[in-house]
Structures are given as C-alpha cells and as structure tokens.
Specification:
3 domains, 361 residues, three-stranded antiparallel beta sheet, nine-stranded mixed beta sheet, DNA polymerase, domain 1, alpha/beta, 16 helices
Length: 361
C-alpha cells in the first residue's frame, strides 16, 4: 500500500459521518481510499446534503506522525497482520492502532471480561484462569478496566495478552493502570481504535467491546451486573457467532446477576479452564477457517434512483430497524438499500446500531 493510499484511507476514517460500515462500503464500491474521497461530495449531494467536511491531509498526517512517534502503527483491515477473526465481524474497525506484537493474535484468543468492582474471589479466579489459558498457548484478550480485566491481564503476563482500550494509544485509563498498560504495550499487545490523545468517553466503550468480542473465539464473563459493559461484550460475541461463557455466582450478589442471566439464556457454565477448552473444541481449526464474504459485495455494481431513496427513507424513523426488514418492506434489492443508507449516513441523517440496524438521527 502506497503512503498516499494509507493517507487517503485514514482521511476517510476520520471524516464525519463515515463509520466502520460505511467505510467498508465505500472501499468496496470504489476500490481505494483515494477514489472514495473523490466520490464523497457526489454521494453526499445525492443524500440531500452539501459538501461533506472531509478530514484534511494535515489532520491525517499529524496522526500518522504522532502514532509513529509513540512507537505504534496503523494496521488497515485488509492488511495481512489484521486479525482474520476481527475482519469478519459486522462493523470491523477500518484500522487499528497497535503497539506490540501482532503475532499474539495468531494464537487462539479468549476474551475475559467482568465487573470493575469485582469481588476478591472473582479477581483471583480471573487471574488463575488467565495463567491456565496462556499455559496452553492461548492469548487472553481484555479491556484493561479495573477489576476482572486487570486481573486477567496480570495473570496472562507470563504468556500472551492483548489489551483493547477505549482511549487513544497514549492515554492511560484507568490512571492506576498506567504501568500495566505500558508493560503490555512494550512486551505484549495494545490495541486502540481512537486516534492518539482521545480521552475515553462513554460512547467509545461499546465500540471497544465489539473489538474484544471480535478478536476472540469465545468470551468468558466473570461477574457482571445486569446492564454492564461486560454483558454488551458477551452479547456482541453471540451476535458474531462466537462462544459465550459465564462463571456462576451467588444469587445474593448483584455482581453475579449478569452471569447467572447469561447462563439462563444459554451461555456455557464455566468452573475451570478445562470447561473453556471443552466448550471451544478444536479452536485451531477455527483459526484456519476462511473469513465470510462481505455482505456488501454487490455495492460495486449497483446504483440508486429517486424511487429507491424515497422507498427506503419512508421506512426509517427514530426507532432502530433491521436493514433486512427495510429490504423486505421496500421491495428493493439489498445492494440498492445499502447504497441509499450509505448516502443518508454520509449526510448525517442516519445512524447505525449493533445488529445491522439503522435509525434516523
């Protein structure tokens, strides 16, 4: 990939209203970041807006220089080093910023997540589980949060661990994990989607959680409240077709309610590392499988007219609706619906939600 193409792709990522799904659609339709940037004004105009605010060359160049100065680098989704498991999920990050050794992701990966205010016994279990998994050649993936995440990373330091953070690669969060974050970045693998200098805002954590779930063959939850981020990670794992596992806890402990609920919903009950290995089966075979073909494959050969736009726009509202449902009710080809949604997203009129759902802004 040429430096000019890398710069164009990064500008596309940082352009307002270009999310992961629309970025992949633009790349698939136009074949390169440079061509997609040239097409943006026309697409935005067709979606009912004026000239889009495309990220400047200066903004993208500063980010590339800053990332390099930090000893990190961008990896785009079609590059060989990018995780094949992450590449196949809905809304995969167009690029990630990494410090460390991407070879960590060539091993089988298990995500361990859980409560920030975890009990001492939960932290002990997470730490020992990480020790046992890494001893079997497995990389432990987590989010470097307080509690269970921290315990899992600490337990995996003697083997291999990957931390996915919601901030920029140069921002330590939580602050007390600054030394651990630096150790993981130096000796293991640190992954960020946000540009350097980004503080960890609330909206960044669900995006971070989808990466954790996407990197791993299975997600293990150890203590989680009913509406916690750990359950978001587990449910995204289920959406991606990965195994969801949970450690049961006392019904008297609110921190165990989320795990117990997951088990009631069909998650695999875990009491030891052997349970994890049994649940996942021959995970080496999963690592070697072919990635799924992108659902946006036909966008390169489709175009839209006013009839398509009116039919799709008339079915949208403030409540998220599945794209498949819009296809069914509109009677339009799936590729035409996707292209209309892309045009509307570029104008800021449509937002995307987990589970391939969309709504009006």
């Amino acid at each position: 990939m040429t430096p000019a193409e890398r710069l164009a792709r990064l500008r596309l990522i940082r352009t307002p209203h270009v999310g992961p799904v629309s970025w992949h659609q633009l790349m698939q339709r136009f074949g390169s970041g440079e061509a997609a940037l040239q097409a943006l004004p026309d697409l935005a105009l067709r979606g009912g807006s004026g000239k889009p605010r495309i990220a400047s060359v200066e903004v993208a160049t500063r980010e590339i220089d800053r990332v390099a100065a930090l000893g990190a680098r961008h990896i785009f989704s079609d590059e060989e080093e990018y995780s094949p498991l992450l590449r196949e999920v809905e809304g995969a990050p167009p690029a990630v910023i990494i410090r460390g050794d991407m070879a960590m992701l060539q091993r089988p990966c298990i995500a361990i997540v859980g409560a920030r205010n975890a009990s001492a016994i939960a932290c002990r279990f997470a730490r020992q589980m990480a020790v046992d998994l890494t001893a079997r050649g497995i990389t432990v993936v987590s989010g470097l949060a307080r509690g269970v995440d921290t315990a899992a990373h600490v337990g995996a330091l003697g083997g291999s661990t990957a931390a996915v953070i919601a901030s920029g690669i140069d921002v330590a969060f939580p602050p007390e994990n600054a030394a651990l974050q630096e150790k993981i970045a130096s000796d293991q693998l640190m992954i960020a989607e946000q540009p350097p200098g980004t503080e960890p805002l609330a909206r960044h954590f669900p995006a971070r959680n989808r990466i954790i779930a996407g990197l791993a063959q299975g997600t293990l939850v150890i203590e989680a409240a009913p509406k916690s981020g750990s359950l978001i990670t587990a449910r995204r794992a289920g959406d991606f077709g990965r195994e969801v596992m949970a450690v049961p806890g006392s019904p008297l402990d609110p921190r165990a309610q989320g795990c117990n609920q997951l088990i009631r919903e069909g998650a695999i009950l875990i009491q030891s590392v052997d349970d994890v290995l049994e649940a996942l089966g021959p995970i080496d075979a999963r690592m070697a499988r072919e990635p799924r073909r992108a659902f946006i494959e036909t966008l390169a050969i489709v175009d839209t007219g006013d009839g398509d736009r009116d039919a799709v726009a008339g079915l949208l509202g403030p409540t998220p609706v599945a794209v498949d449902e819009i296809v069914r009710q509109s009677g339009r080809p799936a590729a035409a619906v996707q292209l209309v949604l892309l045009e509307l997203e570029l104008t800021g009129r449509v937002t995307r939600h987990a589970g391939a759902r969309v709504s009006l802004m």
